[in-house]
Fold these 2 entries.
Entry 1:
Amino acid sequence: MKYDTIIIGGGLSGLMAGVKLARSGSKVAIISSGQSALHFYSGSFGLLGHAGGKELLHPLEAIGSLPAGHPYSKIGAESIPALADDAKRIFADAGLTFIGDASKNHFRLTPLGLCEPSWLTMDDYATCENPSETGWRKATIINFKGFLDFLPGFLADGLKKHDLPCNYAEITLPAIERLRRNSSEMRAAAIAKVLKGPVLEMLAAEINRAAGDSDVVFMPAVVGIDSEQPVRELRSMVIPKLLCVPVLPMSVCGMRSQIRLRRYFEQLGGTYFLGDNVTRGYMEGPVLKEIETANLSGMSLQADNFILATGSFFSQGLAAEPDRIYEPVLGADVEAPADRSLWCGKSIFDNQPYMQFGVVTDRDFHVMFNGVPAGNVYAVGAILGGSNPIREGSGGGVAILSALQVARNIIAAGRADMSEAQA
Amino acid sequence: MEYQIKNISPNNLEQCIKCTICTVYCPVLAVNPDYPGPKQAGPDGERYRLKNPEFYDAALKYCLNCKRCEVACPSNVKIGDIIQTARIRYDKRPVSLRDRMLASTDFMGKMATSMSFIVNTALRMPLTKSVMDLTLGIDHHRSFPAYSSETFESWMRRKAPDQSRFPRRLSYFHGCFVNYNNPALGRDFVKLMNAIGYGVSLLEKERCCGVAKIANKMVDEARRDARLNIGSIRKAVSQGRPVIATSSTCVFTIRDEYPHLLDVDNADVRDSIQLATAFINRLVDEGRVKLVFRKDYRRRITYHTPCHMQKLGWSIHSVSLLRSIPGITLVPLESSCCGIAGTYGFKKENYAYSQAIGRELFDRIIEAGVDLVATDCETCKMQIEMSTGVKVENPVTILAEALDVEATMKANGVI
Ligand SMILES: Cc1cc2nc3c(=O)[nH]c(=O)nc-3n(C[C@H](O)[C@H](O)[C@H](O)COP(=O)(O)OP(=O)(O)OC[C@H]3O[C@@H](n4cnc5c(N)ncnc54)[C@H](O)[C@@H]3O)c2cc1C
Ligand code: SF4
Ligand code: SF4
C-alpha cells in the first residue's frame, strides 16, 4: 500500500498532522498501536505557562528566549500565531470548541481550586481571564454519590482562597446508582456513557434544586464522551452558569478530542489503523522506504514522507533500559546522557531531566540517524526532545504546533515539486 | 536487565501501567455492572490468581473475548488472553449440556444437515424455542441459522467444477457455518478464486476452528481439533498451497488463539493462514491480480468491523476491495461490537446484555439506510440480521456477485 504520508502514532500530534495533510488532499495513513495520552487530558492545552521560574501571561514574548534545541525555537516565534490560529480552526471543524488565544494565557481552574495559565481550554471547563477577578459570586459544587475521582473538598478549599463562598451537594440518579454496583469501575467514562437523553433532564433538575441562589455550579467533567452536544443540552436546562472541573482519568473530554479528531481525519479520506504496531522501517541511505507492522506483516507500507508521532515513554515512543534510552521503532538518535544517575531528579517534585529527553531532529524536524538527518522522516509531539511539558506547561502546544509545522512544510514541498515538474 | 527480560510473561502482564484505558473500551463493562472489567479481570486479577487460584472470579464468564481492550491498550498487554487463560485454568465448574451443544458446531451441523428440513422447521417453531429456552437456557428470541440440505464439502466433492485446471492452488478453510448453513458463500469463494486463476481444494481434514469450544471451556476437545487442523494446514502449505478462510473468527482463532490459549504451535505456518479479503487485496495491491466488475451492479452498503477483524487489523483489506467495485456506495460505519460474540448471545442469561451492547451499532446501521451490510464474520451476520432486519453478506459474496467473471478471467490470463 502506498500513501503520500504515513504517520506512526495516532495521538494528538499524529492526528493534527494527519488532519492538516488530509485537508490539503494528501493520501494519509495513521498507524497507532493503542490509545493515546489524550485520555489523560486535563481539558487544557498549554503553550507556555512557565519559563525561568515565572508564571507567564504572554507566552509568545518568552519564546524568543528559549534554548535553540526547544521545539518552539525550531518553529520560530514568528510562525506560531498563524499555526495557533490554524489549530483552532481544525478543532472547530472537528466539532471541538476551545477558548483561548496564543497571544495571552487565560487561567484554568484545577481540581485543587488553583488557577493555572493555559492556551486552549475546552469550552466545558471553568476558566477565567484573571484569577483575582473571576466574576463568580457564589458557587455550588456538585458531585455524584459514590464517585471517588473528584474531590470537592479540595476544590472548595482552593476556591475559598479566591473568597468564593461554596456549598456542596451530592446528587444521585437511578442510572448512576446502577453503576455503583461495580464501585471500582464507577469512573468518569462510565458516568458519561449514561448521561444522555432523559437522564440529562433529570440531572438538570437535580442541579437546579441543589444550586439554590448560586450563580455558578461546578461539576466533575463527566459529560459528552463523543460530542459536545450533551454538555450544551445540560447547560441549556441549568439555570446558573454550569462549569466543569477536571477529574482523575479517564478524561471524558480527552476521549472526545481523540474520537472527534479521528472521525474528522477519516471523513477527510484518511485511513486510521488502530491496534497495530509499527515494528521496523527499511532505510535506503537517508530515505525511509517502507515500514512493517505486526498486523500487516508481509505487506509493504510505502510513503513519500513518514512522521514519527509515537509519544514519549508513556506511549512507548521512547524506551528505557537500565543502561540506555532509545527510540524503538526506527532507531533514531536520542538525546539523553549515558549516565543513568542523571536521568531522574531525587524527589518526585524536583525537575525531572528525563522529561526533556527525546529524538534529535534538525530545525525542520527531520529525524537524525547517526548524526545525519533523514530526507523524509519527521518527528512531532511528545517524542521530541528539548522541552519539559510539565515544568513549562507546554505539552499540548509542542504536540499541536510541531505537527502543524511539519505538515505545512510537507505540503509546501509537495507544491514546490509540482510547480517544478510543471515548469 | 536479563532478570527483567526473563520475567516478562508472554501476555505482557508486567507491562500494565494501570492506566485504565482498556476499561473504557470494554463493551461489556458499559452495560453490565456485574462484570469486573478488563483491567480488574485481566492484569490486576491475575496478580492475585498467581498467588492463589481461589481469587478466581466467576464473573469472568461475561467477557466476550472481543479483544477490544487489547486494541486500546497502549502497553500491548494481552488482556483478553489473560482473561481467557484464567477461565481455562481456574474455572472448574463442569460444562453444561447447553454449552456443549452450542459449542459443538460441527457435531450439531452433521446431525442437522442430514435431516435439515425437519430440523429447520422444528427450530423455527415457537414451541421448540420456548422448550429450548426453558430447558436449556437458549434464549427464545434467537433463531438458529437454517441448516443446508447439502454441506459445502459434499458440493465440493461432487459438483464443483474441475479445480485442477487452474495455474495456482490454494486450500480453503471453510468453517462450520459455510459447511452447514451457508454453502453459498463457499461457492462464491470458489467462483471468485477461480476467476483470478486459483484452484480451490479442501483440506485433507477440517474440524471446527474451536472458537466456540474455547469460549465454553471445552479446551481438550478444542485442542484436539486444533492439532488436527494444523496437521492438515501443514500438509497443504508443504505442498505449496496457502490456506484461506472466509471467516475472520476462524482465521483469528487458528492464527492467534491456537498458540496463545491452546498451546498449539503454528509458527511455521501462521503466515500462510489468511483471510480471503486480505489475501486477494494483497494480490491486487501488488498488481498481480486484477478484478473486473459488472457495470450493472449497484448497491449502497456499509462495512461492519467484527471484533476479531478489528484485532487482526485487516478491515482495510475488505473495505479496499469493496471500494474498488464501481457500483458500490460505501457508507462509513464506526467500529463497535454487535454483542453476539459467537455462542455468548445465544445464552438466556446473556441475551439482554448482548442486545444492549449492539444497540448503538444497530441504530447506526438502520440510520445508514443501506441495501446491504458487509462483514467477514458469520455470527455478526446472524446478530445484525436479527436485530436490524438488514441483509448481511460476506464481502466475498458481494465481490463474487459484482464480478464480471469472464472479463476478470481474461484480465488475469486464466482464459
Ligand atoms: C498522563 C499524561 C497527561 C497529559 N496531560 C496533558 C494535558 O492535560 N495538557 C497538555 O497540554 N498536555 C498533556 N500531556 C502532554 C502530552 O504528552 C501532549 O499533550 C500530547 O498529548 C502528546 O501527544 P503525542 O501525539 O505526541 O503522543 P501520544 O499521545 O503519547 O501518542 C502516541 C501514540 O503513538 C502510538 N505508538 C507508540 N509506538 C507505536 C508504534 N511502534 N507503532 C504504532 N503506534 C505507536 C501510541 O499507542 C500512542 O497512541 C500529558 C501527557 C501525559 C503522559
Ligand atoms: S490499558 Fe493496558 S496498561 Fe492500561 S490498565 Fe489496561 S491493561 Fe493496563
Ligand atoms: S475481551 Fe472484550 S469483553 Fe473481554 S474484557 Fe476485553 S473488551 Fe471486555
Note: Chain B has a mean pLDDT of 91.
Entry 2:
Amino acid sequence: MPVLTYVEAIRQGIWEEMERDPSVFVIGEDVAEYGGAFKVTDGMLERFGRDRVIDTPISESAIVGAATGAALMGMRPVVEMQFMDFIACGFDQIVNMAAKIHYRWGAKVPMVIRGPSGAGVHGGPYHSQSNEMWFVHTPGLKVVIPSTAYDAKGLIKASIRDENPVIFYEHKFLYRRIKDEVPDEDYLVPLGRAAVRREGADIAVITYGAMVWTALEAAAELEKEGVSLEVVDLRSLLPYDEAAVLASVRKCGKVILLHEDTRTGGMAGELAALIGERAFDDLDGPIIRVTAPDTPVPFAPPLEEYFLPNAQKLMAAARKLAAY
Amino acid sequence: MAEAKLTPEQKLAMYHRMLLCRMFEERVYFLFLEGRLPGTIHQSQGQEASAVGICSALDAGDMITSTHRPHSHAIARGVSARSLMAELFAKETGCCRGKGGSMHVGDAGAGMLPAIAIVGGGLPLAAGYALAFRYLKQPNIVACFFGEGAANIGVFHEAVNMAAIWNLPVVFVCENNKYAASTAVEKVMRVKHVSERAAAYGIPGETVDGNDVEVVYQAMVKAGSRARAGDGPTLLELETYRFAGHSRSDPGHYRKPEEVAAWKERDPIARYEARLLAEKVLEPSEMTKIRASIELELETAIAQAEQDPSPKPEDCLTDVFAS
Ligand SMILES: Cc1ncc(C[n+]2csc(CCOP(=O)(O)OP(=O)(O)O)c2C)c(N)n1
C-alpha cells in the first residue's frame, strides 16, 4: 500500500473528491499557482483549472461568507485558511451565518474550512494556536482533527461530503513528520467517531490531534513500568463520540484528558463533565487533565516547550494516577 | 506646501539608517540559513526607503504600527539592533522578551507598537492610538504601515473610514510591493493604485516612488503636517518591491527574473548613494566608514544576543494579565 505523509493524504483526499464531484472547489489565499502556504493544494490548479482552484484577496470574512453563499447553491467549497489563527478574521460569517443557516431555514451549507493549527514550530503567538474550542462551542458546526495520514484522507473526504459546515484542523507539526499506509482508493472515515489507538487496562488517555502521538509515546514507555495506557483518539470534537469515551473510562476506571489547547474551557473540561455525569460510579480515581496552561503560545523554544504537553508530563501524571 | 529642506546631516542619517536596515536583513538571512534563529522571517530588502523616509519625518512622541515584515520599520524608528537581534535569537533581552519573535518586534517606548502579523490588524489600532493622541491633546501622529494585500481585508475599510470621519491624526502608509505572498496585486484589485481608494473615504490619497527616500520623506512631511493640524488622515501609497521571497520558505518563483532585476536597478540604497556622492554630501571614504561602523554594530548585537540568557521556561506563565 502507498505510504503518504499527512499533507499528501489531505491533498489526495481533496483531489479525489474534486475528481468525483464537480461541485467541489478549492478557495483561499495563494492556493492556485503557489499551491498553498503548506502546499496542500499543490498541483490542483494544473489539474482542475482556475474555476475550481480560486486565489482570493486577503479577505477571510468574505472568503468564508462567499463559500457559504456558494454552498447554499449546492457547491461544496473547500476553504483554506493560511493558518487557522486567521480564521478569527472570518469569525462572524462562520458562527452567525454558516453555523445557523440550517437551523434558521433548513438550507444546507456543505462546506469545509481547513488549515494548519498547533504549535511546536516556534511560530509564536499568531501562528501556533489550537483554537478548535471557539467552534466546538458553536452548535451547527462540525469540528474534525485527524491525527494520522489514513484518517486525514478519510476524514477530509467525509467532511467534503457532509451536508454541514465542517471546521477541519490539520496539525502543522504533523504535515511532513508522520507517514502511514494510505489506500489509493476511495474510503471514508466517519465524522463523530473516535478510534482506540492502543488498547490498555489501567488508564484511559482521551486525546486528539498531534497529542495522540504524545500519548502513544508515553504509553510505550509506561508499559515498561507496568502501567498500561489505553489511547483514544477523538478525531471529531463536535459531535464527539461519547460512547467511545465512556467505554474506555469504564474499562480502565481511571482517565487522563490530554490536549494541546489551553486548559480553561478546553475539550478536557467537556469530557470531564460527561464522565462525571455518566461514568461516576466507574471511576477509581480523580479525572486528570494534562493540557497547555492558560497563556498565549510563546515563541522562544524553552517557553514553547514549557507550554506544550509532552510525553514526560503525561507520564508523570499517569504514574501518579496509577498509584492512586 | 513648500518642501521641507533636508540638511546634509539629515541626508546622511537617512542613508545610514537605510544601510543599517539592509545590512541587518542580510545578516539575519544568513543567521537563518545557518539554523541559528528559530521560527520564520519576512524580510524587507528593497523597502528601506519607505521605512526610513516615513520614520525620518516623525517626532519622538509619534507612533508607528507595523506588520509581519517589521525589521526595517523597527530599525528606521530607532529600535536598537541589539534588542531586535536578541528577539530573533529568542532571548530574554529581546524587545518582546522572547515571547514574540520576528513578526512581533517593536518597542512602544521607542515609538513603535510591537508589530502585528495579522494582516490589517494594525489599522484600527493606529486609528485608536490617534484618537487617544487627540483626546489627550498631544501633538502627535501615528504612521500606520501595511502592505497592499492588507488593503483588501475588511478592517482596512472600517479603520480608514473611522479615521476619516473623525479627522484623526494618522497617516495610512501602504507599502505596495506588488505581491501579497504569491498573489500579484492586479489579480486582487481593480484600481491601479491603492491611493485611489482614498476618494471613497473623502481623504487625500497619493502614490509616490517608494524607492526614493527623499520623495517618501517629503510625502510624509506633507501628510504628517495635515494630520498634526487636525485635518485628518491621508492614504499614502509607496511603490516599492521586496527583493527577497515572502518568507524564509518562499523562493519567489511567481515573479519573473526580469521583473526582479528591473526593480533591483531601482535599489533605494544604491540610488541614494549615487545621488549623495554626486551632491558631494557623501565621500567614498565616508561610505567605507559607515559600513564598517554598521558591521561592528551588528557583530556586537549578534555576539551579545548569542550570549544573552534564554527566558526561563516558567516565564511562559508570566504577563498573561496586567496588574
Ligand atoms: C488575516 C491574515 N490572513 C492571512 C495572513 C497570512 N499572510 C501573512 S503575510 C501575507 C501577505 C501580506 O501581503 P501584504 O499585506 O501586501 O504585505 P507584504 O507581505 O507584501 O509586506 C499573508 C497572506 C495573515 N498573516 N493574516
Note: Chain A touches chain B through 39 residues (CB under 8 Å).
